[in-house]
Model the fold of this input.
Amino acid sequence: MDSTEFYDRTGEYVAVLIPQVWRELGPALGKTLAGLDATAGALVDVGAGTGVGTATLAAVFPGAEIVAVEPHPGLRTALLARIVDDEDLARRVTVLAADVAHAQLPERVAGLIAMNVLGHLSAGERREFWALLAEKLTPDGRAVVTIAPPTRPEPVPEAPVARARIGRLRYTGSASAEPAGPDAVTWRMSYAVSDGDRRVAELSALDHWTVFTPGQMADELAPLGLRTAPVDGPHGLHVITRR
Done:
């Protein structure tokens, strides 16, 4: 599924607001990956976006090889800017300009993260991703994915997502969702920029998102010799390992 148009419109706001989300998600992810042998293969960040997760992986695993996969050119520009400005990241991180289905991933993947990504894949594309993971993951490797509500096609009332201040300007984002068929919702992301009491800019954009339950994921993974378990409820983190 293609979210290019959505990120064409919202990339600026994603770049500004996503760091707040990662202030809590980053430590939770680091705890989930603790003890992983990052010398057994590369670490992969699927849907790396602006690179906050990539930088988190680099901090948790000093010296590890990292592959960041990001198909959207705008988000990838921010990702590359982050990497080139840091000598350590520039030495260790390879950025692939493709979606995960077409990226040339390393033969051995010790760890993989896919944060707020899987809903961009159709059910068929998700199963293809699981098959790729089963092929690449090292025997003691670990993948961490997020499954956030809703896990079924049901409405989600509008709620704030994040806020940030840059200079005089205050950025805010909120989200709501409506059912969009038997296995999907349409997210409405609303953003605003304010200078004191004056509204400088506002934008709403729609994004199609495939929903599925943790039980569905477990059923899809089992025939591939993989298993999953929830590890962090507040952030929707689930770890995937070999059986």
User: Anything to note?
Assistant: The longest strand covers residues 198-210. The longest helix spans residues 4-33. Residues 4-149+212-242 form a domain with the Rossmann fold fold (CATH 3.40.50.150).
